[in-house]
């Protein structure tokens, strides 16, 4: 191979950092892009010891591991770009970026998508009230900014992550006064912001409600690139099909870490190694692939966080577009058989978050009413922009291209 | 409410306390922290109202992606409050609906 291979890694969490460092070898020019002000991904807000870490991060807590990663990046020749969003991935590996320097395009030889996961959310009565937030929002407030989400908090969610969130809240000085395993039947209320929560009766006074419902892979940019998808029972959604090198069906586009299906930290890192070596045609690829094979852990099937039949009719399923459950049920009743159909009929999923939150819920509402199973459901079409971009910035980029 | 000392993270790294104005009232904030954190620390959970229903919204996902976390800062509408650092003297207003875009001014 002659000349320099340009590689762009999107997402500066664990797998993205690993991919960038691995790919950063003689003959390769690596750009690492991340939307937050610092690299590290969601581990930046975690105070927990990393569960199942790669050897190099043994004993680290989440936030410590990201400081370590940033030190390694500082000593490398990697071009790190923070506060930069990739809002589109187009033909011929063209990436649209918006960062502090304005809007621009890149057209690298290889793209490694390490875009991580989003949080699962689920509608219940009162969930749009101020004071109701997700676990990641609560952790960002507590662990990055030393602000408590509330003094009296309710936590909704089952499993180890919800238990950890409860422990995090209590460590920070909040009282967790209610804990619900699922949002089914939960009702929150208050004047102007959340003041109480209940399930069939007794109201408990709270000033915050935190949802810890788990994570969903976020391969939105791979979907922009029209990568082939397959249903993953372990994730409860569609994920990009990849070969053993972590390459999608689109030549030169790789997906690593949670974006391809939620994995342990060790496996995310190992996927980063594989893609980094594969993208640079390294002789060490075989070693990385065997390390990945060792790190792979089987996961049980995804358990739905709520029962779609129990979402109250008047509750907003899409918070941004303010589309209520009854409206979505009517659309399904009148023939909508996919999330795209529901979106066209109701606007659900058309908000700035691009349906990432609502797709999970609407897919299950369709299943309940039609019997179409999740693996048979046509996945929602992902379209740019993946993040909010001002029209003025688009205009600026168009001018630059001309 | 501020966390004065966290059992694992310790005390907040020193920052300079500044004053910002929220809906006409002064609050104390730390320079450089996200506006949304300053508001929550002052007990202000609602940051905007929705365009058609007028219902209040606050920070939900906290990653600076959603339109629910937008507010009006120094007269500019639709500013991402989780992404915008506090500066001394900043004027923040609860955004009403789509906000005032100032066409008529």
What structural keywords apply?
heterodimer, A: about 400 residues, alpha/beta, FAD/NAD(P)-binding domain, Arc Repressor Mutant, subunit A, 3 domains, B: about 100 residues, mainly beta, Ubiquitin-like (UB roll), 1 helix, 7 strands, about 5% helix
Query: Are there runs of chain A of 5+ residues with pLDDT below 50, and where?
Result: none
- Which chain pair has the greatest contact? A-B, 45 and 37 residues
Calculate Rg of chain A over CA atoms: 21 Å
Q: Structurally, how many domains make up the residues of chain A?
A: 3
In total, the number of strands of chain B is 7
Would you mind describing this structure in some detail?
- By secondary structure, chain A is of the alpha/beta class.
- Helix content of chain A is 30%, strand content 21%.
- Chain A folds into three domains: 194 residues, 3-Layer(bba) Sandwich (FAD/NAD(P)-binding domain), CATH 3.50.50.60; 90 residues, FAD/NAD(P)-binding domain, CATH 3.50.50; 66 residues, Arc Repressor Mutant, subunit A (Orthogonal Bundle), CATH 1.10.10.
- The two termini of chain A are 31 Å apart.
- Chain B has 105 residues and is mainly beta.
- Chain B has a domain of 73 residues: Ubiquitin-like (UB roll).
- Chain B contains one helix and seven strands.
- In chain B, a hairpin with a 2-residue loop joins strand 5 and strand 6.
- The mean pLDDT of chain B is 91.
- At the A-B interface, strand 9 and helix 3 of A face helix 1 and strand 4 of B.
């Amino acid at each position: 191979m002659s000349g320099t291979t340009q590689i762009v890694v999107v997402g500066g969490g664990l797998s993205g950092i690993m991919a960038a460092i691995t790919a950063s070898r003689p003959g390769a020019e690596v750009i690492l892009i991340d939307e937050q002000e610092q690299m590290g991904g969601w581990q930046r807000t975690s105070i927990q010891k990393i569960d199942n870490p790669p050897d190099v991060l043994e004993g680290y807590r989440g936030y410590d591991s990201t400081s370590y990663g940033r030190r390694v990046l500082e000593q490398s020749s990697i071009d790190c770009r923070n506060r930069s969003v990739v809002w589109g991935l187009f033909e011929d590996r063209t990436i649209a970026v918006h960062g502090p320097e304005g809007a621009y395009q890149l057209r690298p030889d290889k793209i490694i998508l390490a875009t991580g996961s989003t949080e699962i959310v689920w509608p219940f009565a009162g969930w749009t009230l101020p004071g109701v937030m997700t676990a990641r929002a609560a952790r960002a407030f507590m662990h990055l900014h030393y602000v408590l989400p509330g003094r009296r908090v309710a936590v909704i969610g089952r499993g180890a992550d919800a238990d950890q969130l409860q422990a995090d809240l209590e460590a920070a000085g909040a009282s967790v006064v209610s804990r619900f395993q699922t949002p089914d039947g939960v009702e929150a209320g208050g004047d102007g912001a959340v003041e109480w929560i209940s399930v069939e009766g007794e109201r408990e006074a709270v000033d915050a409600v935190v949802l810890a419902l788990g994570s969903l892979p976020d391969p939105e940019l791979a979907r922009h690139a029209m990568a082939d998808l397959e249903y993953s029972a372990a994730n409860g959604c569609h994920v990009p099909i990849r070969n053993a090198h972590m390459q999608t069906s689109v030549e030169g586009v790789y997906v690593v870490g949670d974006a391809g299906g939620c994995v342990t930290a060790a496996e995310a890192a190992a996927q980063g190694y594989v893609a980094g070596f594969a993208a640079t045609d390294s002789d060490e690829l075989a070693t990385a692939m065997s390390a990945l094979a060792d790190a792979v852990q089987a996961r049980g099937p995804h358990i739905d966080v709520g029962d779609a039949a129990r979402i109250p009719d008047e509750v907003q399923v899409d918070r941004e577009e303010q589309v209520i459950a009854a409206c979505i049920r009517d659309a399904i009743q009148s023939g909508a058989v996919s999330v795209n159909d529901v979106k066209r009929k109701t606007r659900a999923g058309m908000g700035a978050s691009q349906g990432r939150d609502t797709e999970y819920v609407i897919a299950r509402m369709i299943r309940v009413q039609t019997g179409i199973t999740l693996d048979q459901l046509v996945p929602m079409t992902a379209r740019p922009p993946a993040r909010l971009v001002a029209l003025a910035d688009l205009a600026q980029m168009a001018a630059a291209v001309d | 409410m501020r966390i004065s000392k966290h059992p694992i993270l310790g005390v907040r790294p020193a920052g300079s306390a500044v004053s910002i104005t929220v809906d006409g009232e002064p609050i104390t904030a730390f320079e450089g922290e996200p506006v949304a954190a300053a508001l929550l620390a002052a007990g202000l959970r609602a940051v905007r109202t929705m365009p058609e229903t007028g219902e209040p919204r606050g920070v939900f996902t906290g990653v600076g992606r959603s339109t629910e976390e937008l507010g009006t800062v120094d007269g500019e509408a639709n500013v991402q409050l989780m992404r915008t650092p506090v500066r001394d003297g900043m004027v923040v207003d609860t955004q009403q609906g789509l906000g005032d875009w100032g066409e008529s001014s």
